[in-house]
Design goal:
By secondary structure, the protein is of the alpha/beta class. The protein is built from nine helices and five strands; from the N terminus they run E-H-E-H-E-H-E-H-E-H-H-H-H-H. It folds into two domains: about 130 residues, Response regulator (Rossmann fold, 3-Layer(aba) Sandwich), CATH 3.40.50.2300; about 60 residues, Arc Repressor Mutant, subunit A, CATH 1.10.10.10. The protein has a five-stranded parallel beta sheet with strand order 2-1-3-4-5, sandwiched between helices. Helix 6 packs across helix 7, helix 6 crosses helix 8 and helix 7 packs across helix 8. The longest helix is centred in the middle third of the chain and has 32 residues.
C-alpha cells in the first residue's frame, strides 16, 4: 500500500494536534477529527487506512464508533486509545475488530508497532474485499438455473439429486454445471465452491 493514511479521532485538541504532527514527521498521512460523529459522517469517502480512536469522548464514544465500523463491514484497521481502560473494554474492542488496545501514556514504539500491524491487517482486508467483489461479479453472470445448480453443488448434492430437486434431467444438470464452471473460470469443484462462498451464495434449500 503506497499511501499510509492514519485517521486520528480524539476530542482533545492538544492530543490530536501533537499526534498528527508526530505521524506526519514519521512519513504517515494523518487526518484529524474532533469527534466520532465527525469521523463517521465522512466515512464513505475515506480511503483505506488505520484509525487511532480514543475511547472516552463526549457524545458517541470510541467503542460506539468501533461497533458502527464493525456493523458496516468497514475494512479500516482500528487502534483504540484509552486513559482508563479495563479488561472488559479491551475484550469488547477486540471482538469488534480492533487491531490493538493501547493505554495512555504509551511508548511511541508501541503505537508504531500497532500501526504496522494495522496496515498489514488492512492489506489483507482490502484484498479479501476485492476477491469478494470479483466473486460476486462472476456469480452475477449466471442464469437463474445455473445459479440453482451452483447452490445444489454447494449443498454437496450429486447431479442426479440436483436434477430431482430442480425437475431437470441429470444430463441437463451436467450441461448447466459445465456452463457455470466456464463462467466462473473455475477449473475444479473446490475453486467453484470457494467463489460461491466468497459471493455469499446459499446452498440449495431442502425441498
Amino acid at each position: 500500500m503506497d499511501r499510509r493514511r492514519v485517521y486520528v479521532v480524539d476530542d482533545d485538541d492538544a492530543v490530536r494536534d501533537s499526534l498528527s504532527r508526530f505521524l506526519r514527521i514519521a512519513g504517515l498521512e494523518p487526518r484529524a477529527f474532533g469527534s466520532a460523529a465527525a469521523f463517521l459522517d465522512v466515512l464513505p469517502s475515506l480511503e483505506p487506512g488505520c484509525v487511532v480512536l480514543d475511547i472516552h469522548m463526549p457524545g458517541l464514544s470510541g467503542l460506539d464508533a468501533l461497533q458502527i465500523l464493525h456493523d458496516r463491514g468497514s475494512p479500516l484497521s482500528v487502534i483504540m486509545l484509552t486513559g482508563s481502560g479495563d479488561v472488559a473494554m479491551a475484550v469488547r474492542a477486540m471482538k469488534n475488530g480492533a487491531v490493538e488496545f493501547i493505554e495512555k501514556p504509551y511508548e511511541d514504539g508501541a503505537l508504531f508497532a500497532a500501526l504496522e500491524a494495522g496496515f498489514e491487517t488492512l492489506g489483507q482486508r482490502v484484498s479479501e474485499a476485492a476477491a469478494r467483489e470479483r466473486a460476486k461479479a462472476a456469480v452475477a453472470l449466471l442464469t437463474p438455473r445455473e445459479h440453482q445448480v451452483l447452490q445444489g453443488m454447494l449443498a454437496g448434492l450429486p447431479n442426479k439429486l440436483i436434477g430431482y430437486r430442480l425437475g431437470l434431467s441429470m444430463r441437463t444438470v451436467e450441461v448447466y454445471r459445465g456452463k457455470l464452471m466456464d463462467k466462473l473460470g473455475a477449473r475444479s469443484l473446490s475453486a467453484a465452491m470457494r467463489l460461491a462462498l466468497a459471493a455469499g451464495v446459499e446452498p440449495l434449500a431442502d425441498a
